[in-house]
Design a protein that fits this description.
With 334 residues, this protein is mainly beta. Helix content is 8%, strand content 43%. The protein has 2 helices and 24 strands. The strands form 5 sheets. Strands 15, 16, 18, 19, 20, 22 and 23 form a 7-stranded antiparallel sheet that branches. Strands 2, 3, 6, 10, 13 and 14 form a 6-stranded mixed sheet that branches. It has a 5-stranded antiparallel sheet with strand order 4-12-9-8-7, with no helix packed on it.
Length: 334
């Protein structure tokens, strides 16, 4: 019998708690916004990009739409939040970022109340947050449009989009925030839109070399060159472009032969790759070398790399055989 009384008491408490949550609601502290909605003013006509890593903000615009009015809502431990639908843009693969028509530039839309500690920092829909009865939650007063770098290459040009966000709270009619035909022209004097070599593949004829010459280190270096064209708006000063290499190596600049270890392949030797100053070429991004700027074209900056390749001993007995190798280069810019 005692067990049954305890069970009834626990059931009653659970029912009371559920009833309290179901009837909780929010209310306007003063009055709702006129017309029950907000229209976002136009963006600034131009947006200038600044340097930033991929995934970070290159530029932003903060626009006030409340005309100085403040619309707080009081809630009793309820959740409030915002949803949003963006038109004209697709997701960019980064949190809350949408892809634009300009290469490497994404848009992120946030809402803020700069003067209110109750709002906190910029919030990006969709989101929800808890409330406290002693801390009214204001409707947002500013929209923040952030231009986020989404890739290595960054272009320029017009961006156009729209959105409809809605603020919701229990017991209160949803408040829409609507931006239509939002357009700005992205200007770019920082980044290249693309860098690529004039020739995609280079063959360096190494010729036939006597084993005795490799043993003594008496081999002829073969020169190779690479011109790189970086397109986009020309920087005030030529921006740095770097290069490093990828391939089968034992250390920087010492390239193994294709199919090393096979009976028909030479052994005890490798191909040494160096720049014009005799420094072995790097095979890690952290050691990438600067390319030499050559000249400007109407739509591109031209950079140059000069290297050398020669056979050198790599340890062990040098044996004759096929001695080909392949190396790839990686351009680092922006």
């Amino acid at each position: 019998m005692l067990f049954k009384k305890m069970l009834s008491a626990l059931t009653l408490l659970a029912t009371l708690a559920g009833t309290h949550s179901a009837f909780a609601a929010c209310r306007w502290d003063y009055y709702p916004p006129p017309g029950g909605r907000f229209t976002i003013p136009p963006l600034a006509g131009t947006t200038s990009l600044s340097p930033a890593p991929i995934g970070q903000v290159m530029a932003s615009q903060t626009i006030s739409f409340s005309k100085g009015s403040y619309y707080p809502i009081s809630c009793n431990y309820d959740y409030v939040g915002m949803t949003m639908n963006v038109t004209g843009l697709e997701p960019a693969g980064l949190p809350n970022v949408h892809k634009t028509s300009v290469e490497g530039v994404g848009v992120r839309i946030g809402f803020d109340v700069p003067s209110s500690w109750n709002w906190g920092e910029i919030k990006y829909p969709p989101f929800q947050r808890g409330t406290h009865p002693l801390a009214p939650v204001p409707l947002p007063t500013h929209v923040v449009i952030e231009f986020v770098r989404t890739g290595t290459a960054v272009g320029k040009g017009p961006i156009s989009f729209g959105f409809k966000a809605e603020f919701w709270a229990p017991g209160i009619t949803t408040v829409p925030f609507v931006g239509t035909g939002l357009t700005t022209d992205v200007t770019n004097s920082i980044y290249f839109s693309a860098c690529e070599a004039q020739v995609k593949s280079i063959i360096v004829p190494m010729g036939k070399v006597a084993v005795a010459n490799i043993r003594t280190g008496n081999t002829q270096a073969q020169n190779f060159n690479l011109n790189v064209y970086c397109k986009g708006l020309r920087p005030t000063q030529p921006a740095p472009v770097k290069i490093y290499f990828e391939g089968a190596t034992t250390s920087d600049g010492l390239l193994k032969f294709n199919d090393a270890g096979q009976s028909h392949v030479a052994s005890g030797a490798a191909i040494e790759l160096t720049n014009g100053k005799g420094t072995r070429l790097p095979f890690t991004p952290g050691k990438a070398l600067n390319l030499d700027w050559q000249y400007s074209q109407p739509d591109a900056e031209v950079y140059h790399f000069a290297g050398q390749a020669r056979y050198v001993p790599s340890g062990g007995e040098v044996k004759a055989g096929k001695a080909d190798a392949v190396v790839s280069y990686v351009l680092v810019y922006n």
